[in-house]
Amino acid sequence: MTTRIDVPVGRGRITGLTTDGEAGTPLVVALHGGGYHSGYFDVPGHSLLDLGAAAGFAVFALDRPGYGGSDPLLGEASFAGSAEVLDAAIDTLWTEHGRGRPGVVLIAHSIGSAIAVHLAARHPRWPLLGISLHGIGDRSPAHIVDAWHAIPAGAPMELPAEQRRALLYGPAGTVDAGVVEAAKASVEPLPLAEMLEIVGEWPEDVAGLAAAVTVPVQYTLAEYDGLWVVDENRVETFAGYFTSAPWVDARLQAGAGHNLDHHRLSRALHLRQLAFACECATRVPAAGD
């Protein structure tokens, strides 16, 4: 059963959704991308939370700062600032729900993936076992960069439905129209600062941040992702940034678009992510080893 959560962080809070899980499994924390709240991971028929619960995992899909019921960052939104707040929130979740579990695995999409890399590079005090990233790259097409820079400064913006369909979903054969409609319930405006950072500072920072990551990495880039330059070379290059990771499992996913979690292949994606979490937990050295 999915329930709402409210995690105090300093004078603010982080909200989200969670499911119950069996003892002994990793605690899974999911971070959504830009323009969606935590409900992104709970679209009917494509819910990571439902599948995780069925497989015995406690999954916490968090609203990033400024989304859902989570308080915004003080000052302008930034990936590093979001990582700092989420680090504290996950520390609280671990204290309250980590007993008997081997550690935490992050599953992240799009801008949430960039923030997950920032989080892992911080080397948090809670036991991070691995990060699973999708919907992220290191180079956006020129027309995306130009479009984001052409947006007037001001209030957070929401992509028009037609643009969201074209950029975030693959061809009709990869996704059902009803799912695209259902996913609208989790759509929210996104800060312009996030849009500019993902096409600006992020491509410059990713190699240095990734080199500081010392846990296993799973990386998936979709064939029809409209926000990134997509080819085998880009996947190999991105995976190669994680020079300190024990291992990196990277793939170019055919037959899906940016919002992989809502495509017909979503179940395959989520099963691979949960299997990755199991593998990360299994490879943790036992006490005394």
UniProtKB/TrEMBL annotation:
Keywords: Hydrolase
One annotated GO molecular function: hydrolase activity
InterPro entries per record: AB_hydrolase_fold, Hydrolase_4
Pfam families: Hydrolase_4 (PF12146)
All residue ranges annotated as the Serine aminopeptidase S33 domain in the record: 27-125
Record-given protein name: Alpha/beta hydrolase
Organism in which the protein naturally occurs: Amycolatopsis dongchuanensis
